[in-house]
Amino acid sequence: MKKPFANAYEKIKKLLQGLFSKKKPEGEEGEQAAAEAAEESAIGAEEEQPASVPEPGEEESSKPAEEEELDEKAKLEQVLHNIAEEEGIKEEKVSKGELDEQKKYDAEVKKRAERAAKREEKDKKAEKDEASGADKKIIDPVTGEEIPLGSLPVEATYLKKYTRIQTTADDVIVAINSIIKHSDMPKNIVILGRNGFGTVKVGEDFARSFYELGLVKSDKIAKTKAKQLNKMSLDALTKLKGGCLIIENAGLVSFDKLVEVIKDSAPENNNYVVILTGEIDSIANFFEENEDIVDQFIYLIDIHKIKERGMMHLAKGYVRERGYKADKQVFDRFKNALKSMEEGNIDRFIKFIDDAIERCDKREGSSGKVEKCIEPEDVK
To answer: Are the C-beta atoms of 305 and 192 separated by less than 8 Å?
Structure first.
């Protein structure tokens, strides 16, 4: 999608090419160029002032070259003004800075499209391998060796629901098993979502599982947005020692601040795990520009592909994880609720289910029941 000034930019470019290119001889081509310039200058101008009439006896060719150049500049400014009005830019001029911004915007769109194409190709291959029923092999993130996928440890109860999602299950299983196997390597994780996703809940589930598996010494979890982290002192994280830090919208964290966090989280210092969550392309850009810290984040959890079917698998797993039961009518209501949410927004969906569970507790508590069964009336 082009920015508002894109159309104006194309028209201005044509005018500039005509104005500053080598002048053609007078004649048929000169007349045609003059006609085109006159037509362009009339764009968007409903009322134009008549051109000044030369004094009687004064020849047009007798004008000094400097005066002719001034006339040309005046005409160009009028055309720019007319185009601006037509494109809804009002009195703003299309500056060099705006043109540079347009180029950066176009380059970013192209880069993201290329990444999306590669991800889609990878997803199709994974689906094909899944359908073939062959024993699945994966690459160990630390050694680069091909190894069997394995299964999720029983203690990682908070992550079990994500293994029901085909597009995400492998990443979760690989990360946990590799961290257990290579306990001397950084345990930091990057959770990749789509724009509008909320994936902090996924980060919390990893943090709780780390504690249940004995991968961290404390069950403390700290959460902060990248922009807040950029401004804060890390003295506040001394109480987090041995726990996990979750950074939301991590693509916006400054390089210097993240380096500071990595040093602070080292085993010889406060010894906590760093979990980055955020939009996949913004985080990809951050790591492309700051390759020095890539080795500190070995494990990538790709959540950006999750769609409605995966979200319903997640819901069923989460209800069971919390120790509740629910029938088809309840899950149909959960499914309908997804239509009003950003596709794949796990944080918002889990909050919606939590609210239904809370209503269930109040209803059953007041009636004296302890069945822990979510009813359709609890889903609002």
So the answer is: no
